[in-house]
Amino acid sequence: MRVPFLLNGSSCPVQQQGPKRASSKSGSSSRKETEPIQAGPTAEKPHGCFCGRAFAKKEHLKRHNMLVHENVRRFTCHTCNLRFGTKQNLAVHVETEKHKLRVRVLEQQRVRR
User: Fold this and answer.
1) For 27-44, how does the pLDDT look when each residue is reduced to its tens digit (9 = 90+)?
2) Would the pTM of this model clear 0.90, i.e. be above it?
3) Do residues 72 and 85 lie in contact, with contact meaning Cβ atoms separated by under 8 Å?
4) Do residues 78 and 109 both lie within one domain?
5) In angstroms, what is the C-alpha Rg of the chain?
6) Which domain holds residue 49?
7) DSSP structural state of residue 37
8) 59: buried, middle or exposed (CB in 10 Å: 19+, 13-18, 0-12)?
């Protein structure tokens, strides 16, 4: 189960209600106002990228640049001929039904030969 990331530092997984916007003429709006996320390097995250993201470790910045900006895909599924940026994404793909179906089809083709 994923726990939502809370910007206010609260350990409670239930989001706290912020101030509501004034209602418009067409109806009331229940969306809450949120504070903008600060971008760029800070004391806790000194390694900043030109896109505004900041990271605590230099290797995280390098990985971000490779995956997001350079579009490097080092991990390949040789069965489906698909490429992935991380080993974890390849592992998730291998567990999908689409991949398993492709493997079964290829195995049946090999048996017939």
Assistant:
1) 444 545 655 555 677 778
2) no
3) yes
4) yes
5) 22
6) 43-72
7) P
8) exposed
